[in-house]
Amino acid sequence: MKIKRRMAKELVTISPDATVLDAVHLLHKHHIRHLPVVDDGRFIGFIAGSDIKQVLLLPNGNEMPLGEFMNKKPLTVGPEESMEDAARIMYSNRIGGLPVVEDEKLVGIITVGDILAEFIEIMGGLQASSRIDVIMHDDQEEFEKVSRLIRHKGGDILSVGMSDANGKHSKYYFFRLKKCNITPITEALKEKGYNIVAATV
Hints:
With 201 residues, the protein is α+β, with helices and mostly antiparallel strands. It contains 7 helices and 8 strands. It has 2 domains: 3-120, CBS-domain (Roll); 129-200, 2-Layer Sandwich (Alpha-Beta Plaits), CATH 3.30.70. The protein has helices at 3-6, 20-30, 49-56, 83-93, 112-122, 140-152, 183-191, and strands spanning 34-39, 42-48, 97-102, 105-111, 129-137, 157-164, 170-178, 195-200.
């Protein structure tokens, strides 16, 4: 999934001549943790709330211009890059947000929260769902048989998870489905000899 799908596009920015106190007011007013610094429409720096807290400890820190301590070479991503790329950069560098830049212009911001929302959506967690946990052989053909049976009985598979079971050649498969009546599905699976560990609506 491309970053432009999830990034925030309605941005709060600040100029390099603004003071730390100006930045604090903006962060609190808009309930945000990062401020892009823009000068004459051009993206020139990035400031995190944690950076501002450090400056506030300095004598007259409130009045210090942001241009004096902002990160002038922050890590950035482009809108056409993938969410996986953004997640990898944030995780590797232990940062909570990335400016999204195109042709030196700020076009968005992507944060850890956006990455998490994307992951939850992929796993089907942002919509009502049902779940069926099945133990079966660790075999692609077997997996396809079960998947076909679920679909045949009206199940719409959102995502599938997997973990080791007690048996050497068995796995737990966690099928998350769009919310539905799972009784016909579980009964059909049991008739075929599959071990249903749990089924929730």
